């Protein structure tokens, strides 16, 4: 997509979903949460987590899967993420991106995502992860992750009274991240295509998913379930204890509503064009190579 823009002056509040803000405001009023956060920071080691990732996963960069890393860097530029996180390849088949860490978060992209998604779709899934960083979700996400990963002996007793609020907020925070993903890929079709693939993707099937039918399904689902909407965010932790993110079809309907509201268009229209930096071929010295090319057009050297 040649007309992608950088979103100068973008604030998290520009793309924050109203339910995300409401749930986050409720969390911040709970005094017990500060005690829980203190317990987590005392009993977890961010440096150990990073040690494990660095020792287990391939770190992507300019010399390691550079075409993927190029997309990641451009997403950071679009969302104005000043400190570029380290990017690791997680060797898992499911399609996902994730953020780990609190003070210096890292981003994980799954092998399945890179295999299944095209370049435009990678902008969306990277934008989701970076949206969480832009919105400052990392700390509360870590609390929720630990609550559902068996850390009961350390923080479970302290955090149990706020578990409902945490998981409710976690589910709606992804709605804000979906909006950040759209702001990165800047293509409705690519964004919805990723969500459709998250809802179900048959790798060996020749016929592609019908996006128009998927959009219709999402709109119909939201219309039928509007009366259940509030209950889903706040009460389903009892029966969906480990389910932290909302239904993908519902996420699609929410993103479509944001597009239709005109808010997405307003943000994008104030952006500035992405200017691709030039690079030089070390073999022949040709210096007018666009940053998104990885083969020199003059000598065919792999960059």
Describe this protein's structure.
With 303 residues, the protein is α+β, with helices and mostly antiparallel strands. 34% of the residues are buried. The chain has a 4-stranded mixed sheet, sandwiched between helices. A two-stranded antiparallel ribbon has the order 1-6. A two-stranded antiparallel sheet has the order 7-8. Mean pLDDT is 82; it is low at 237-241. It has 15 helices and 8 strands. The longest helix has 23 residues, at 163-185. Helix 2 runs antiparallel to helix 10 (163-185).
Key terms:
two-stranded antiparallel sheet, globular, 303 residues, 4-stranded mixed sheet, 8% strand, alpha+beta
Uncertain spans: 237-241
**Within the largest sheet, what's the order of strands?**
2-3-5-4
Annotation field: number of helices: 15
How many DSSP-defined strands? 8
- The pLDDT mean sits at 82
Report, as a whole number of angstroms, the end-to-end distance. 22 Å
Describe the sheet with the most strands.
Answer: 4 strands, mixed
Strand and helix order: EHHHHEHEEEHHHHHHHHHHEEE
Rg, alpha carbons: 20 Å
